[in-house]
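Handoff note, outgoing to incoming analyst
You'll be picking up this chain. Sequence as last confirmed:
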Amino acid sequence: MPFGVMFQSIVKAGFNFIYPPICLHCGKRRDENQEFLCFTCWNQIKTYDASLDIRQVLKSRMIGRVKTEHNFTLFWYQHSSPLKTLFQNLKYQNRKGIGLYLGRFLGKKINEKLESASEPAILVPVPVHKLKQIDRGYNQALMIAMGIARETRHVVLPAKEIILKTRQTDSQTKKDRISRWTSQKEVFGLNPKVNIDLNYRSVLLVDDIITTGATLEQIGKLILSKWPEARISIATIALTE
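Most recent structure output, in case you need it:
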């Protein structure tokens, strides 16, 4: 073994001994090969399987809102799940690596559907207001989109945001469907600095979690108002039960 590699291994072992990797959810020591959560906590997260979604919950969230070509998600969101802890750390504890990590898993799933596409899909992450981005330092949906882009050559992440959030809003997690839709009206707008034609292109809207679908609906309708021939799809890490 080369000396440099051996030295790095020794340093890493020493660091892990002094600062052992801890599971973000249960607080117990996790294997260094397990990212963010221990094996037990990862297994507590309920995986989404479209073939077992008898009620077609994911598809139904967008019915009557925006016609979608594909709908992708990884997990069911449950309030007692370790996934909630991951989201909280991603959004409020400066753990943007969680977004990249989960985005790469989502990218692998997207590959299966888009591998025969004639041209790459355009990624459009749900934006946050500029004040919140300054406070947080990043947009979690953008981190997820970056993870997707790293994993698949079938998507493209534009240099400039296509959609801007024009008004700051309160947390949407405890609002019902009507209240959520009302609070989202006139919150988003098209970025006038973007010079891109999305007509006849596949546009993939990216967010961390889909609840009622109101946010994705408004963004999808904004895009279609300017590019009516765009083909809309959605990709989220999780779906509320």
